[in-house]
């Protein structure tokens, strides 16, 4: 990619935003050097890496990437025998620790999430626990060498502390004497040149003897090492020299340990750089509400609700852009009212971001082509006085583009042909577009020349587009209208601003009839497109509501039949128990009667006893192994659309809509439509033929009550009002149980919902959701 194009499309500003999310100097270096790739396989791999990082962040919320340093220079010095400083060793240990932490984090995450790329990186991290522990045993986080670094160092430091204590005691006894009050400037012990001294007034310099190490700025105070402690200070110095030698020995030993693990540490650093940068891209994608695009090398671009990433989300107008399928060139025409250049840059920048492995600011399902090169001729033509130099600068860029553009290029022209005579500029623009189209490039061009509107209609593979302009507010809406060429708004704007209508009418007479017809046609197209988009959005909303209703009803139906089967099974079991008990009692009675007849000659006949027993046996209900009642054989009937039938598998009435196959019919049961085998249908002979009508009419989302109410993000008062209405709607719908999603948060909304439900007369009981239902963030309500 040309550096000039990256700058024009502001890719460097995207990188600046990306760098705000790196955690280490290693990740920052990768961000600074980031460039788009022209290799399809590499782009796919980069996008997969970022997507895995996005999924991890979505589930885990954060990743342990702190404590990573750029230790490559330290490793080089250690390998050639250099001694690393304590702070450099701390950075090595910290980086080793960070590698161990991120490896464990990814391994734990991989148990529940499919992240093969991240898992592969984690496997490549070498755990150097012995290096980390050895350095931390010798050096603390502040870079100080610890006593535990070696026995010799501990012994030397113990000696130092003993000697220093003796020196201080001796000096403090001197400054506490009565004569010292007048000879000392201050009764303190201090240090100069690593030797203990006391502040003596100038006139008493000879009293203590010894060595003068410093004096005050005024010269009135001398810092003297008394003769009495010179020997002790000398011993301290000797021990300090030995201490320093021991510290250097320890540092060299630790540096050698680092050098021995040079390759593993280099490999860890490289992997940590990759991981840091991957999660930086994921965090940046979250910031811009980006998504992972699918990529291809066939020149297809499909951006849905694409936004310019450098414009605040609450200000930018998202647009759909499709290129490379039915047409390879988009010509955005219309006056300079704003939005055309932003559209160009949005497409160009989204392409560069996708090829660099970044999420793009567009909806899921967007698609980006991997181009070998992106060329752009974009300049602020409105802010530059029209001159030969302006036109020349454009031409220099265009000449360069025409020399290099090919079938795998994306070419962006802003104000094509501007800066010269309008007629010649338009002709040049048409010729340039023809040449780039002939080379097979994908092209988006903006222009305010009306001649190029006809170009979009007369060329195969070319489509017109424009940026919508609101005449009422005299401002652009920044909404891209593909398939609708731009039209001049000069007359309408002038009229709105108060120009005399007679002047405007005269101006209209100077425009030929053909131009007027074209402008009227464009206006009609704009109106029709807006209306179609509004109706499409409404239809999408209704479709989503219908699908949700369908899913809810299917779920309720499944629960109903499951409950019905359970109740039937329990009823049969209970009935069998009752009858078995009755049969037992009857057997006892019959036995007693026989005994009575034998013993007493009672007039009870045997066949009467047998008949009574048979009737008792016949009264017992039959048990069904599969818990399904045997269905009566359906009558022979030639089914026709509109027949009322009983669906035997469900035990429900329905109506035949149409024959699907020789053996299957589409049946409407309530609001549900399903395919049913003809052998599972039983014709219901109704005395009066009913007119076939739709079973239900879906009027909008307000007519449907879902099984869940989501209150997340609602204010407390609004949420309780919604709960009250929802409970009433659910009761009217006859739901036995519903769920209210209030989230965890501060707990105020959850408590408010619980209090309301506790006092509701129709609520049987309420409970928090199970682990699989959302936990304490969900309340499950059961009605009476």
Characteristics of this structure?
6 domains, alpha/beta, 784 residues, MutS, DNA mismatch repair protein, Chain A, domain 3, 23 strands, Rossmann fold, 5-stranded antiparallel β-sheet, 22 helices, flat
State the helical fraction: 40-55%
Q: Would you tell me the overall average pLDDT?
A: 82
The helix/strand class is alpha/beta
Gyration radius (Cα, Å) is 44 Å
The proportion of strand residues reads 15-25%
Q: Distance between termini?
A: 68 Å
What does this molecule look like?
With 784 residues, the chain is α/β, with parallel strands linked by helices. It has six domains: 3-128 and 261-287, MutS, DNA mismatch repair protein, Chain A, domain 3; 149-252, Orthogonal Bundle (MutS, DNA mismatch repair protein, Chain A, domain 3); 294-492, Rossmann fold (3-Layer(aba) Sandwich); 512-613; 631-702, SH3 type barrels; 705-783, 2-Layer Sandwich (Ribosomal Protein S8, Chain: A, domain 1), CATH 3.30.1370.110. The protein is 49% helix and 16% strand. The strands form six sheets. Strands 10-11-12-8-13-14 form a six-stranded mixed sheet, with helices on both faces. A hairpin with a 2-residue loop joins strand 17 and strand 18. Helix 9 runs antiparallel to helix 11. The longest helix has 88 residues, at 513-600. It is flat. Residues 381-388, 624-634 and 688-703 have low confidence and may be disordered.
Question: How are the SSEs ordered, and which strands pair?
Answer:
Elements: H1 3-8, H2 11-19, H3 25-32, H4 40-60, H5 72-79, H6 86-110, H7 116-123, H8 129-138, H9 151-175, H10 180-183, E1 190-192, E2 195-201, E3 211-215, E4 221-225, H11 230-260, H12 262-287, E5 294-296, E6 301-306, E7 319-323, E8 329-333, H13 340-355, E9 367-369, E10 373-377, H14 388-404, E11 409-413, H15 422-438, E12 442-447, H16 451-458, E13 462-470, E14 475-482, H17 490-496, H18 501-509, H19 513-600, H20 606-618, E15 644-647, E16 652-659, E17 664-669, E18 672-677, E19 681-683, E20 708-710, H21 716-733, E21 737-741, H22 748-758, E22 763-768, E23 778-783
Helix pairs in contact: 2-3, 3-12, 4-12, 5-11, 5-12, 6-7, 6-8, 6-12, 8-11, 9-11, 19-20, 21-22
């Amino acid at each position: 990619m040309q550096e000039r194009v990256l700058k024009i499309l502001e890719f460097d500003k995207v990188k600046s935003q990306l760098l705000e999310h790196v955690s280490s100097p290693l990740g920052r270096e990768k961000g600074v050097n980031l460039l788009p790739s022209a290799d399809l396989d590499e782009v796919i791999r980069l996008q997969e890496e970022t997507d895995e990082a996005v999924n991890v962040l979505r589930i885990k919320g954060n990743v342990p990437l702190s404590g990573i340093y750029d230790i490559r220079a330290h490793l080089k010095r250690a390998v050639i025998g250099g001694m690393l400083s304590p702070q450099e060793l701390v950075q090595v240990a910290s980086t080793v620790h960070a590698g161990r932490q991120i490896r464990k984090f990814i391994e734990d995450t991989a148990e529940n999430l499919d992240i093969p790329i991240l898992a592969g990186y984690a496997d490549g991290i070498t755990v150097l626990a012995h290096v980390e522990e050895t350095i931390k045993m010798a050096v603390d986080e502040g870079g100080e060498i610890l006593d535990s670094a070696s026995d010799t160092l501990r012994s030397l430091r113990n000696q130092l502390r003993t000697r220093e204590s003796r020196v201080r005691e001796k000096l403090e006894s001197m400054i506490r004497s009565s004569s010292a009050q007048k000879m000392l400037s201050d009764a303190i012990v201090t240090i100069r040149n690593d030797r203990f001294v006391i502040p003596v007034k100038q006139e008493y310099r000879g009293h203590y003897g010894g060595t003068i190490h410093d004096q005050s700025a005024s010269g009135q105070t001398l810092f003297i090492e008394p003769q009495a402690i010179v020997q002790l200070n000398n011993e301290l110095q000797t021990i300090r020299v030995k201490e320093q030698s021991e510290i250097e020995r320890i540092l060299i030993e630790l540096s050698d340990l680092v050098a021995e693990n040079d390759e593993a540490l280099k490999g860890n650093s490289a992997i940590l750089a990759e991981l840091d940068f991957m999660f930086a891209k994921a965090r940046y994608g979250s910031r811009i509400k980006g998504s992972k695009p699918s990529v291809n090398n066939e020149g297809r671009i499909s951006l849905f609700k694409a936004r310019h990433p450098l414009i605040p989300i609450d200000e930018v107008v998202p647009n759909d852009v499709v290129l490379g399928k039915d047409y390879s060139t988009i010509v955005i025409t219309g006056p300079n009212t704003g939005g055309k250049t932003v559209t160009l840059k949005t497409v160009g920048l989204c392409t560069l971001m996708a090829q660099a492995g970044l999420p793009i600011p567009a909806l899921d399902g967007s698609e980006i082509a991997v181009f070998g090169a992106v060329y752009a001729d974009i300049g602020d033509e409105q802010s530059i006085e029209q001159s030969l130099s302006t036109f020349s600068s454009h031409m220099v860029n265009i000449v360069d583009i025409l020399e290099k553009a090919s079938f795998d290029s994306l070419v962006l022209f802003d104000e094509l042909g501007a800066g010269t005579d309008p007629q010649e500029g338009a002709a040049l623009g048409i010729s340039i577009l023809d040449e780039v189209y002939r080379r097979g490039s994908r092209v988006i061009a903006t222009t305010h020349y009306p001649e190029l509107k006809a170009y979009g209609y007369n060329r195969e593979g070319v489509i017109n587009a424009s940026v919508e302009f609101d005449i009422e507010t005299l401002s652009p809406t920044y909404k891209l209208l593909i398939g609708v060429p731009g039209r001049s708004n000069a007359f309408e704007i002038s009229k709105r601003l108060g120009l005399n209508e007679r002047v405007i009418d005269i101006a209209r007479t100077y425009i030929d009839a053909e131009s007027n017809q074209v402008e009227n046609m464009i206006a009609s197209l704009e109106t029709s497109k807006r209306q179609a988009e509004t109706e499409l959005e409404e239809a999408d909303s209704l479709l989503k509501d219908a699908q949700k209703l369908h899913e809810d009803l299917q779920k309720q139906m499944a629960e109903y039949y499951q409950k019905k089967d359970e109740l039937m099974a329990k009823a049969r079991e209970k009935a069998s128990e009752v009858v078995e008990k009755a049969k037992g009692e009857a057997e006892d009675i019959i036995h007693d009667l026989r005994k009575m007849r034998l013993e007493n000659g009672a007039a009870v006949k045997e066949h009467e006893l047998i008949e009574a027993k048979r009737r008792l046996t016949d009264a017992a209900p039959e048990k069904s192994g599969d818990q399904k009642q045997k269905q009566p054989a359906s009558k022979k009937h030639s089914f026709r659309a509109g027949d009322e039938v009983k669906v035997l598998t469900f035990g429900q009435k329905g109506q035949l809509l149409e024959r699907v196959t020789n053996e299957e019919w589409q049946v409407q049961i309530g609001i549900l439509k399903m395919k049913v085998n003809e052998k599972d249908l039983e014709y219901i002979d109704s005395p009066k033929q009913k007119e076939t009508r739709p079973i239900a009419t879906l009027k909008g989302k307000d007519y449907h009550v879902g099984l869940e109410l989501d209150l997340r993000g609602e204010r407390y008062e609004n949420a309780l009002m919604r709960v009250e209405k929802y409970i009433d709607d659910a009761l009217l719908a006859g739901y036995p149980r519903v769920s209210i999603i209030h989230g965890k948060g501060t707990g105020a909304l959850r408590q408010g919902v619980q209090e309301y439900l506790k006092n509701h007369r129709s609520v049987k009981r309420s409970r928090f959701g199970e682990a699989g239902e959302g936990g304490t963030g969900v309340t499950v309500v059961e009605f009476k």
